[in-house]
Amino acid sequence: MNASLPDAAATPVPPQAPLRLLIAAPRGFCAGVDRAIEIVERALERYGAPVYVRHEIVHNRFVVDGLKAKGAVFVEELDQVPDGAPVVFSAHGVPKLVPQTATERGLDWLDATCPLVSKVHRQAERQVEAGRHILFIGHKGHPEVIGTMGQVPEGAISLVETVADVHALDFTDATPLAFLTQTTLSVDDTAEIVAALRARFPTIAGPKAEDICYATSNRQAAVKAIAEECQLLLVIGAPNSSNSLRLVEVAERLGTPSRLIQRASEIEPTWLDGVTTLGLTAGASAPEVLVREVVQRIGEIRTVAEETITTAEEKMVFKLPRQLVD
Ligand code: SF4
After folding, report:
1. Among 83, 89, 129, 153, which residue's CB has the most CB atoms within a 10 Å radius?
2. 152 in contact with ligand 1, CB cutoff 6 A
3. Cα–Cα nearest to 18, from 304, 230, 269, 301
4. pLDDT digit string, tens, across residues 272-318
5. Centroid of ligand 1 to alpha carbon of 285 (angstroms)
6. Can you list the domains of the chain with their CATH numbers?
7. Residues 144, 252, 268, 288: which is the catalytic one?
């Protein structure tokens, strides 16, 4: 018998260090999303169910399902709204034709377009009135892009998605041009595209700062502050949420793998293998309750030491439409 062999049962297993969980702040709901949800809730109180909502009020299934349970009916087009029913337009904004048609049909409509998106709409009108062709930086097919491009006559605005698109533009600097941007873009990508536009068209007009909203830029800056310390970043958000997708990109550009999740149930324990510091954030349309659900789920897999890393305080609040405040 070899008495020097260690007794496996007696070998102490080193305790696993707690998982450091860095939670980015600001994260989650922005003022535009808060306002849009409140508009639907107040419309339900005022008119009773059903209240129709054109397009997902904000890009979050949890929010949409919660409003459906209270009597909201989500449709994609106005012709799905019956005569006489109230209808709310989503936070992303709609082409001008939509409220015009709703008015012609005598519908009671409420506009939940985020005021920061409406501001871009007004800028688009002003630039066209000033005789300029608009180069709009945004993502093709996103409802905000469709809404903003629909503020001006067809042919008065062109979409630019990349620096390569800028090089391919068929204008000379003799054409009066202006640029505008979608509100939920990557701050860094947009800066590159604007720089390319200014280099090619030195007289191009544009806003003083891009129209990327405070919530989008704050959430990207908060991810930048934690990403390099983390081996993985979880972003709570929907696959069609532009600002959430940009948060994934921001982390990945800094070399940190990132996963977009909608709910805690999607988290696989193996994702945390080898992870000592995990980052967590949420897109502007994801409620805090989903953040807590994710923290709880991670706590079921590992012992967690939670820290909130705050890079900015947000105090923005937007007024409700007049019809709902009297
Ligand atoms: Fe408004 Fe920005 Fe929120 Fe979009 S992300 S609803 S533009 S505040």
Report:
1. 89
2. no
3. 304
4. 999 999 999 999 999 999 999 999 999 999 999 999 999 999 999 99
5. 9
6. 19-29+214-310 (3.40.1010.20), 31-114+318-324 (3.40.50.11270), 116-200 (3.40.1010.20)
7. 144
